[in-house]
Amino acid sequence: MVSEYRNSVLVGDTISVTASVSGTPLSFDTRVLKINRQERRPLYVCSLPDELIYGQNRGHFRLVLGMVSRAEATMSINDKKQRGPIIDISEAGVCCRLPAATPIKRRDVIEGVRLKLSTSTTLTQEVEILNIHPVVHSPNINQLGARFNAISPEDVSMLRDHIKESERRRLHNIKNSQDSE
Question: Residue 9: CB partners within 8 Å, gap ≥ 6?
Fold first, then answer.
């Protein structure tokens, strides 16, 4: 049994939290709101911070959109429009999925790629294809990683705002779902 005397964390204390969310390390300071017990161990209920610091090796934060977001990439290849879901996006580039039959290869530069992130946020960019990988459980689909060529400061600003707002909404939804449990 854990001794109460060894538990030096009290309600109202500020603690530093370090964790990993989907493989992305993050850290923040928070306050202990209350202490519950779960299986005779302390369970600290803390407030979510106003600011999160993501430690990452990438030069830009990557917003993972997944299949639920309905974000879509559209590109014309050999005068044929190809569409597919956007998996993630950052200020540097985008990852999306397209049919495996799409005639595309590494280092191809594609102009006029339309990235519809939401009903109110759409970017049109020139991209360079950096990698192409088959999707394991969908043999007719490839996942493409592409870098933006010469993204404008206005588009960077719009993308930053979209990423920040999307992440804020995601964290708010997580907090609300935990509060309702």
Answer: 15, 32, 35, 42, 44
